[in-house]
Amino acid sequence: MPKKIASVAAFTEMVKRKDITGVTIKKNADSVKYKLRGGKYLYTFVLNDVSRAAKIRKHLPEGWKIHDI
């Protein structure tokens, strides 16, 4: 069962973890979903502001697998 991330601060802390290996980004008409693949869980973060989503994408680590849907 996926775990939900509630805030941007929690998301940035989650990105720094060593067991996170990749991210799937799903863009809808009014929101963007980030799905982080952890060692044990899948973590999801929903951002309703599309303009902030582009800024967050720039701060993702370079070695990750990034899948856009």
UniProtKB/TrEMBL annotation:
Keyword terms of this UniProt record: Ribonucleoprotein, Ribosomal protein
Gene Ontology CC entries for this record: ribosome
Signal sequence coordinates: none
Superkingdom per UniProt: Eukaryota
InterPro entries in alphabetical order: Ribosomal_eL38 (IPR002675), Ribosomal_eL38_sf (IPR038464)
PANTHER family: 60S RIBOSOMAL PROTEIN L38 (PTHR10965), LARGE RIBOSOMAL SUBUNIT PROTEIN EL38 (PTHR10965:SF0)
Family: Belongs to the eukaryotic ribosomal protein eL38 family.
Protein name: Large subunit ribosomal protein L38e
Organism: Paratrimastix pyriformis
